[in-house]
Amino acid sequence: MLMNMKELLAVANKNGFAVPAFNISDYNMFNGIMEISEEMNAPVIIAIHPDELSHTKPEMVKGIIERIHKSPVPAVVHLDHGSTFEQIMLAIRTGFTSVMIDASHMPLDENIAICKKVVEAAHAVGVSVEGELGTIGNVDSAEGGADSIIYTDVANAVQMINETNIDCLAIAIGTSHGLYPANMKPKLNIERLDELKEALPEIPMVLHGGSGNEDSEIRKSVEHGVGKINISSDIKVAYYNKMREVLQNPKLREPNQIQPPCLEAMKVVARQKIELFKADGKAALY
Q1: How confident is the model over 62-80, as pLDDT tens digits?
Q2: What is the mean pLDDT of the chain?
Q3: Catalytic residue at 109?
Q4: pTM above the 0.90 mark?
Q5: Which of 26, 51, 80, 234 is catalytic?
Q6: Is residue 78 part of a domain?
């Protein structure tokens, strides 16, 4: 069941759960995420970063869309962290139902200007738009993000929503991209989340950098109104760590021998996230 982000997150926002946005890097990972989502009757967002899209190639998205059309669970194909208008247009032409334009590193007026431009193009063809305000930290250069966290300003968020008409907002409340080192203990600013939800109750809030945070903090963020949480590092670590283990056997060379155990390891993590976000069983609401 293919949907756009606005349709998908409206239900999550109303019913107090968050939809996981799993970043996938190949069709095998995508299919595993769809299988666990169907098993748990959970809505899902298939997130693909421009770097991942350059690896998989846009043609793979056609197969992703076809698979989703045959699925009983609602799903979105979402461009994660698009940084240019050209990347956005490629995603729309390819068939993505949702795009993110990340201009959070720009001054507010420039961020608003490019978000408005993207919204005008995307909404014309039924594609939803995510923007970002404030800066998500970075503990892993492969994942993007800023060197330091700047919390999302409430007044700026209200202005951005009013002037751009974006469908959901990625907020900065204390997360960082990548996996945290052992000596780093992230803490979410739930007070700021409450202030944002009070000012913008109908706008789904998005949490990036969701890998590695304490479950109790993530659970609290969902209880306080986060409607979408991005997960990339956690599922990829599970998938590729298992692959490294499997490949210790030099006799294995067929993908259908190597990849299934890796998928199962990834699905264990995905299942835990779906339950943590209270998304299990929620496909019945659509």
Answers
A1: 999 999 999 999 999 999 9
A2: 91
A3: no
A4: yes
A5: 80
A6: yes
